[in-house]
Every structure is written in structure tokens, then in C-alpha cells.
Amino acid sequence: MNKNLLLILSHHLALLLGISIYGFNIWIAIPVFFLSMYWAKFVGSDVMHFYFAHGKYKDCIKSYFYTFLTLCTGLGSPISFSASHRQHHKFTDTEKDPHSPHHIGWKRVYFLDWEPQTISPRLIADFVRSKFQKLVHKYWFSAHITIIVLLAIIDIRLVCFLLSPFVMYSFHNASAINVLAHLDGTSKNVPLMKVINWWGWNHGDHHDYKPSK
């Protein structure tokens, strides 16, 4: 089991543990759900997707802060996310696409059992130049565990009812898009997901978009 999936499963268990200890309250669950949705939109889409994977990385205070937010997701480092996503765009729905459900099956894509790829350093040359990002990439798993421990010391409910729902929503949202938008071997929009993902359901349009030079 890879580290990403291990952390995500642990967060599912943390939420269940919190509910079993403190009970389920609908008036807490509703705002947590919507906060998780906005978290996935901001950190998953705006930060990890557009700022890191589709941007040109440079060391600055903003990048350092966004890196911390990325570490809270449990989905890996900015380098690993950007490398796989840029590979995905460069070789969409081919055997060189690390998470094409058409080639490796939807279960492997959904549960992060992606196809190992040799990714050209040129795809992430902007990250490779950063000593900070290389350090984060080396220790991202330990950093996420540290965040969990610190929150638990303050109040275990911060893990069970804040961090864990955020991680879970980001995971299921991203996995569903990766599967549904590429299931038949072509990139397409997923109108079905508009209700819980108003910012990324038009995945096919995103792949078709070619920015002006």
C-alpha cells in the first residue's frame, strides 16, 4: 500500500472514530461538508492544480505557504503531484499516462495505485531547481504525520472533524474526476459532478484548452 492511500484510509478511520466517541451532529456535519468542499476547491484545484502543476514554480513566501497547505492534504508533495499531473497532460489516455483508467482500470486510478512512470526531469525543472521543494518532497509523509500529532495535542476533534474530512473530500473528489473524465479513453466533461464539484466538472474543456503563447 502506498503512503498516500495509507494516510487517506487513516483519515477515514479517524472520522469514524470521532463519530463513535462524540456522536454525529447534523448541524456540525453540514458546515464541515461545505468547508471541505471549499478546501478541495482552493487547495486541490487553485493551489495544487493550477498554481503548482500548471504554473512555473519559484521560491517565495506564497509558495511556502501553499506548500504547507498541500502537505495537509496527504496527497504527496508539490513535486510528486506536479510531476504526475504534467505527465498526465503530456500523454493523456496513453500508456504513458500514470492514471488512465482506460489502461490500468478504474479501481487502480481511484485508489491511487497508479502506473509507475519514468518522468523526464525537464517536466519539473522549475521544482528541481528548488532546494526547499526537494526537501519537502523527501519528508512530506513525516510532515503530514507531524501536522496530525500537533492538531491532536491541541484537540483530537481537530483531526477527526476538520483535517480528516478535508483530506477525504479532496481524495474522493479528485479520484472521481480522474476516473469518470477518462473512463472511455478520452478526456470529457462530467456534468454529474456539478453538485459537488462546480469548479472541475468541465475536465474535458480543461484538457482541450490551449493557452495563447
Structure, briefly:
With 213 residues, the chain is mainly alpha-helical. Helices cover 66% and strands 0% of the residues. Helix 1 crosses helix 9.
Describe the structure.
The chain is an all-alpha fold and 213 residues long. The chain has one domain (3-208). The chain contains ten helices and no strands. The protein has helices spanning 3-22, 26-53, 61-71, 78-90, 101-104, 106-110, 125-128, 131-154, 156-180, 203-208. Helix 2 (26-53) packs across helix 4 (78-90), helix 2 crosses helix 9 and helix 8 packs across helix 9. The longest helix has 28 residues, at 26-53. It is globular and about 45 Å long. The termini are far apart. The relative contact order is 0.15. The model has no long low-confidence stretch (mean pLDDT 93).
Keywords for this structure?
single chain; 213 residues; mainly alpha; 0% strand
How far is the first residue's CA from the last residue's CA? Answer: 41 Å
Mean pLDDT: 93
| Form type | globular
**Parts with pLDDT < 50 across at least 5 consecutive residues:** none
**Strand count:** 0
Main sheet makeup = none
> Approximately how much helix is present in the residues?
55-70%
Number of helices: 10
Task: Provide the domain count.
Answer: 1
The H-and-E topology, N to C, reads as: HHHHHHHHHH
Tell me the fraction of residues in β-strands, as a range.
Answer: under 5%
| Rg, alpha carbons | 17 Å
Query: Structural class of the secondary elements?
Result: mainly alpha
